[in-house]
Specification:
Helix content: 25-40%
Strand content: 25-35%
Structural class: alpha+beta
CATH architecture: 3-Layer(aba) Sandwich
Largest sheet: 7 strands, mixed
Distance between the termini: 55 Å
Shape: globular
CATH superfamily: Gcn5-related N-acetyltransferase (GNAT)
CATH topology: Aminopeptidase
Number of domains: 1
Number of strands: 7
Radius of gyration: 16 Å
Strand order of the largest sheet: 1-2-3-4-5-7-6
Order of helices and strands: EHHHEEEHEHEE
């Protein structure tokens, strides 16, 4: 029996599906089953890899003291067209006093080089621009992450400098005025 080919759209469709604090906590513990029971979409086992578990855990700790900020947190990158989670991403926190929000995203290895990061970045820019309290969207990128650096250069980000991150080390900062 011949297999039917799945034709993916030229430009993938990405939504960021926000999760509840309980689901984020479950992902931080690596409990995919508990997170799946709370999630509105099917989750990928990749979402509980060692690196992402740390991200979910850090977000859960922040949200435990400010649960109203869940809309300003990480979510699941979802492609409705193929009905699949393709990564994780979102904002790190509500805007600071200067109206700046930081964003981040990661695409599951099997879905990289297909346009998902670009579409995620477009969604994050639109999200930031739609918020009256946001003036600047910031990306922090490792100097060795050439695909992310190349993507940031395709958008009107200014490179304001760099910072030292206690976990990641040296990060290059890219800011975009959205308001």
């Amino acid at each position: 029996m011949a297999r039917r080919a799945v034709i993916l759209p030229a430009v993938p469709s990405v939504q960021i599906i926000q999760l509840t604090l309980d689901a984020i906590q479950a992902l931080g513990r690596g409990d995919l089953g508990a997170a799946q029971a709370l999630a509105p979409v099917r989750l990928s086992p990749w979402l509980v890899n060692e690196e992402l578990r740390g991200v979910w855990e850090r977000r859960a700790l922040k949200l435990a003291t400010a649960p109203e900020d869940v809309a300003w947190s990480i979510g699941v990158l979802w492609d409705e067209t193929i009905g699949t989670a393709v990564g994780a991403g979102g904002l790190h926190a509500p805007p600071d006093a200067d109206g700046m929000v930081s964003a981040g995203y990661t695409v599951e290895p099997g879905y990289r080089r297909r346009g998902y990061a670009r579409e995620t970045l477009r969604v994050l820019i639109a999200r930031a621009a739609a918020e009256p309290s946001v003036r600047v969207l910031r990306l922090a990128i490792l100097p060795t992450n050439e695909p992310s650096l190349a993507l940031a250069r395709q958008f009107p980000f200014a490179k304001p400098g760099e910072r030292w991150h206690e976990k990641n080390g040296r990060e290059l900062l890219f800011d975009m005025v959205v308001a």
